UniProtKB/TrEMBL annotation:
Transmembrane segments: none annotated. Keywords: Hydrolase, Transit peptide. The keyword S-adenosyl-L-methionine does not apply. GO terms for biological process: acyl-CoA metabolic process. Residues 1-15 have a biased composition (Basic and acidic residues). Belongs to the acyl coenzyme A hydrolase family. InterPro entries: HOTDOG_ACOT. The keyword Glycoprotein does not apply. PANTHER family: ACYL-COA THIOESTERASE, ACYL-COENZYME A THIOESTERASE 9, MITOCHONDRIAL. Residues 1-23 are annotated as: Disordered. This is HotDog ACOT-type domain-containing protein. GO terms for molecular function: fatty acyl-CoA hydrolase activity. It comes from Populus tomentosa. Residues 102-224, 299-416 form the HotDog ACOT-type domain. The lineage of its organism: Eukaryota, Viridiplantae, Streptophyta, Embryophyta, Tracheophyta.
Length: 456
């Protein structure tokens, strides 16, 4: 019996480190409350908690499926040997070696469908963002693994989300697949690209199509010292992998100079734009009866949520799961866009997100949102740009620090606009210089990315 168990664990480990792993099936996580499967298990001669009791088990069926697949590798992360040494030699891996696929069997699993269904019979985007972060974490571990059980595993954390773009609605009635791999690495960072793929309903002969794309940046830290640690090198093989590598490297350089570019823009000629933005806001503050009825002050679009971060929301390193933060931020952004437009919003994309500081269990988290600005160039598809800022608040120390700033873009759902002929998105104006600068900086970053994309 013990030999059979060891053989199964060896197969799991080989599959996790395989260059062409099987697709990981996602199943519903709702089980019989009288099931005794959560009893302590004996593995490799010692007793350990079942995976259902490990951190990260409370978020989604995807997290559960990924942990089941990588359980042997992640046992070392949870309880590394005290005398373990860091990895002494970096390996060279290919994107294929970290490539991972997961499959949502929506067409056959009714309970799974219900876990992901939103009110419009589409997949809940917030829940999907949580899954994307979990999958990106798995891919980063696969790339950084050295296949040596005696070395000290790296601490891998989400540093930023480069961009997430929804290309088409995602149905909850059709099977869904997510495919991802490492596409570029720096000294201690890993760029991971994910694609959400869903076939159309017309027929089985229709080719798969990409419904959403996402890029996550993970950074490696030494799990003992907390300092930046080098990661395995990446060697792209195919022409597509080489192109993705070059594009990711260009984005990395762009990120490094973006802050400098924004500062130059503010210094060189942005004063006039700043004054123009503030002028309309002053009318709202000083002469509200004369203000433009098609405009609204930024501060009047705000919503806020507060929560205490719970142990069930932690990752294997004891910090709050980045996907959970994105999920909560998205839900608030969606509500803000809905309240502002008066119609059901349709999600388009997440702009670059930086995870500035970790969030710990027990932290008091305040999440604030506002409509930062709107765009009316396309009257059929006006854009609503939402800013969501997460603050870690410590009342006992009278302190509050920004953990994350998220930028989401929405428009109105076509079917919602069809039932409201007088639909119009209002213009948002700032009342303070700080608000005006925030608007200009984000609009400047958007135009910088747009010009970079055109130059390619």
């Amino acid at each position: 019996m013990k030999e059979e168990s060891n053989s199964q664990n060896l197969e799991k480990e080989m599959e996790f480190n395989s260059s062409s792993p099987r697709t990981i099936p996602v199943v519903s996580t709702l089980t019989n409350p009288f099931d005794n499967s959560n009893s302590l298990a004996c593995v490799n001669g010692h007793t350990r908690k079942p995976i259902a009791f490990w951190p990260g088990m409370y978020h989604s069926p995807v997290t559960n499926a990924l942990w089941e697949t990588r359980s042997e590798t992640f046992e070392r992360l949870l309880d590394p040997p005290e005398d373990a040494t860091p990895q002494s030699e970096l390996l060279t891996k290919t994107p294929k070696q970290s490539r991972t696929k997961i499959l949502y069997g929506f067409s056959t699993d009714y309970i799974l469908r219900e876990q992901y269904r939103d009110p419009w019979n589409e997949v809940r985007i917030g829940k999907l963002l949580e899954d994307l972060d979990a999958l990106a974490g798995t891919i980063s571990v696969k790339h950084c693994s050295d296949d040596d059980s005696t070395t000290r595993p790296l601490l891998l954390v989400t540093a930023s989300v480069d961009k997430i773009v929804l290309k088409k609605p995602i149905s909850v009635d059709v099977d869904l697949k997510i495919v991802g791999s490492a596409i570029w690495v720096g000294r201690s960072s890993i760029d991971i690209q994910l694609e959400v793929i869903q076939s159309t309903k017309e027929g089985s002969d229709t080719s798969d199509s990409v419904a959403l794309t996402a890029n996550f940046i993970f950074v490696a830290r030494d799990s003992k010292t907390g300092k930046a640690a080098p990661v395995n090198r990446l060697s792209p093989e195919t022409e597509k992998e080489k192109l993705l590598f070059e594009e990711a490297e260009a984005r990395s350089k762009l990120r490094k100079r973006k802050s400098v570019e924004k500062k130059k823009e503010i210094q060189n000629g942005e004063v006039n734009r700043l004054e123009a933005l503030l002028a309309e806001g002053r009318i709202f503050c000083d002469m509200p009866a004369l203000a433009d009825r098609n405009s609204i002050l930024l501060r009047d679009t705000c919503l806020e949520n507060s929560l205490i971060c719970q142990p069930q929301q932690r990752n294997i390193h004891g910090r709050i799961f980045g996907g959970f933060l994105m999920h909560r931020a998205f839900e608030l952004a969606f509500s803000t866009a809905y309240d502002f437009a008066g119609l059901v919003p349709y999600f388009l994309e997440v702009d670059h997100v930086d995870f500035l500081r970790p969030v710990d269990v027990g932290d008091f988290l305040r999440i604030k949102s506002c409509v930062l600005y709107t765009e009316h160039e396309n009257s059929e598809k006006p854009l609503i740009n939402i800013e969501v800022v997460a603050h870690v608040t410590r009342p006992e120390f009278r302190s509050s620090e920004v953990s994350n700033t998220f930028y989401f873009t929405f428009t109105a759902r076509p079917e919602a606009k069809a039932t409201n002929n007088g639909f119009r998105i209002r213009k948002v104006v700032p009342a303070t210089e700080e608000e005006a600068r925030c608007i200009l900086e984000h609009m400047g970053a958007e135009s910088l990315q747009s010009s970079e994309g055109k130059s390619k």
